[in-house]
């Protein structure tokens, strides 16, 4: 069936209040091609009726991408964002859309509501003023009906095509969609204040749409994503440093503050009791020297100490003379074996030994 025929049937289903069928027929018309901005904008309207506000924002964004001057796409994006409580995003879309639809009272009224909600969030709600009613057009009534008295159609949850997981850091949430081998040009991701829209449409395969209302607000300009060979990695910049206990809001209470580990101040090193007492090494050295001086030795030890004291207390000239004599004695002793009694006796009787005997004997005993 041609795309034009599917579009006509979708509009008939919408008039008959069969919004689910209308959304399905618009999807078939988009797949049949060519996909136009009108098809996406009209499917966004059907999604609003079904209560699928994140899907409506995604379709409105696609319509704006194809036709940046389509004012009804901006209006429907703003209407869906208000339902998602993304008032800043809604305000930006409505202000831009009103520039392409001069004099359209729908934008004025919706902008006023958006500003009131923003003021309420800031606890600065302005005083409401009563304005005279403005006659509404047929299209105006149709779009207002999309926002009020909408009964969302509850559909049974279906198993997603791709598995996903996420983890927290202090400043961002990293979401991973395990889509293997997906071409980068088939992935479309949009970020809102508290909304994420992920669409993966591969020709010949069932499209994948993941559009949660996020647990907390994000900074869209700082968010980014990367399509890898085994996954799609999305980094959501947190507007507040809070811990996300889940990815989607789902009526959860306010998040607990993010615990940020800060380095503790340098604490003094603990001291432990010890059985060892501090020693005065200078005092100990003095005591040892005193004991050595006062020590009473006998025999060879006493003689050895006597000659060592002679050398220690001698002046430089005396020490040089003693060293010279010792070297000469040592060379003479080495000239003959120690067993040569005659040589040793002759050496003892010589005047050289007699003049250097004290030092020779001290060194001999020390050796």
Automatic annotation (TrEMBL):
TPR repeats lie at residues 37-70. Residues 159-248 form the CS domain. Residues 271-361 form the SGS domain. The keyword Transport does not apply. Residues 255-280 are annotated as: Disordered. GO terms for cellular component: cytoplasm; nucleus. The keyword Cytoplasm applies. Its main location: cytoplasm. It is found in: Cytoplasm; Nucleus. It comes from the Eukaryota. PROSITE patterns: CS, SGS, TPR, TPR_REGION. Keywords: Cytoplasm, Nucleus, Plant defense, Repeat, TPR repeat. One of its GO terms (biological process) is defense response. Belongs to the SGT1 family. PANTHER family: PROTEIN SGT1 HOMOLOG. This is Protein SGT1 homolog. It comes from Urochloa decumbens.
